[in-house]
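Entry: Nitrogen fixation protein NifZ
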Amino acid sequence: MIEPRQPRFQWGQRVRAAIDLVNDGSHPKAPPDAVLARIGDLGEIVQVGMHTDSNTPVYLVEFEGERVVGCLEEELVVS
């Protein structure tokens, strides 16, 4: 079993997209391959969860324009 990794970011923390975040088909209100947030876009973490298979933190980030996107740590930087 893989030990859970502690989240690097916390609820309410301001972050920026480290890369262009593209819809992988999991965001129902955007077409596949649509850019959900561009590199440098500002957002706020609204929920911190855990991917059960890999025990890695997953963050729901509300970016400007009120779009909530699921992100991994590698996709975010501290604002």
